Every structure is written in C-alpha cells, then in structure tokens.
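Hi everyone, sorry if this is the wrong subforum. Our group has a chain we'd like a structural model of before ordering constructs, and none of us has done structure prediction before. Sequence below.
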Amino acid sequence: MISKAKVKHLKALQVKKYRKEEQCFVIEGTKSVVELLNSNFEVLWVAATDAFIATEQKLLTKRGVEVALATEAELVAAGSFQTNDGALAIARIKQNTAPVLQPNELALVLDDIRDPGNLGTIIRTADWYGVTHIIASAETADLYNAKVITATMGSFCRVEVFYANLVEFLTAYNGAVYGAFMDGADVHTINFSNGGLLVIGNEANGISQAVAQQITQRITIPRIGKAESLNAAIATGIMLDVSRRG
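Answer:
Right subforum, don't worry. Here is the predicted structure as tokens:
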C-alpha cells in the first residue's frame, strides 16, 4: 500500500514549483519505470503491482530501491494516469549541466517549444535518430512535466536536455547552426556530415529574432501541398531523417 505521505508527495510533484523545490519528479507506467531503473537516474522509490515486482524482481534488487506494493487502483489514485497496471516511481532531477559536444555531432536546439507533447515527441524522435543532446530555451516546456516524460516513452533516459540562454550558447558555439524556416535552402541539399546545431522554433511564431541572428544556414522542408505549416515535432523528425541519410 502507498502511504498517505507518499501519495501527498506524488501529488505535490505534479506541480512544477514543487518539482523545483524538491528536485524530484514522477515517472508513471511500466515501460517508463523499467527504462528509469535501467538508467543512471537516482531512483528514490517505486510503487508497483505484484505482477510488476515479480517480472522485474532482478532489476529492482540490482538497483536496491525501496518498493511499495500497490494495486492498479492505488497507482491511478496516486498518479496522473487514467490507467496504470504496472508501476510509478520518484527519481531525482539531474543537474542542468552544459553538454560537451563531440566533433561532427549533430545536436538539437529548441527555441520556446511550449507544448509538453511536442517536447516529449521531439526527445523520442531524437533518440530514434541517435541524437543525444538537446539545448532548450528557458521558456521551453519542463522536461520533468508528466506529459513530457510520458511522450518520450523512456527516451528521457538517453537524451540529455540542457536549459540555457540560447543567444549566449549559440554565440559561443563555433560550428554550423541550421535554422528551420519557411524559407531557406532545401533541407535535402544540405550536407550534415560535419555535424552542427539544428534549431527548431516555437510552434506558432517560429525561431525568435534574437536566435535567428545566430543562424548560419536557413533551411526548409519543401512544401508540395497547401498546408500552412508543419507541427514542430514532425518537422524535427523529417529534418533528422534527412540529416542521417546523408
């Protein structure tokens, strides 16, 4: 059974203010909790069903974390999911550490991506294409928001997200900085083999003027139909696919 104190803690961590104060976040669902246990995140405790504990006993023992037995109904009541037949956990938030980018590495830069679902999908897509670093503006959605964590499908364990002043970060960067715009060079003509930074702008307003001044190459996905624009996460996926084909 999940204690009342733990339930209270779980509920508090659904609010960004308390996540920041406590430096902890909640992970829900079987897949995400298993990914968490296999990662280098510090796991504080896990609440799980009999079935989850039986299946993942070896992993739980290896990590040496506190485990509270819970029913599916208790997991739902304590968390934010409408259904949860496996587990939830609390882990420690990692320090916001600047990435050490390798030569020829392609990294993503997110300029004010506000929608948690978009951010989570971008992280998951980055993981699919082998991108391990994302630099995000302070206004970008919180990585540890439950909707973001859920949308990553566990990829938050492998993709590092660093929040920074983008103008300062880009000014100090020496490589190519590609920016996704409605106008620019056809992305299919770009050679990404030397790596660089790929900047994705806000869902409604695109890349901000201050960040745009740091772009060295404007690129675009050629439009064939009549849609006004592409979803930010979809556009990211297309550009990463093109970059890897080269």
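For your construct planning: The longest strand covers residues 177-186. The domain at 4-92 is CATH 3.30.1330.30 (60s Ribosomal Protein L30; Chain: A;).
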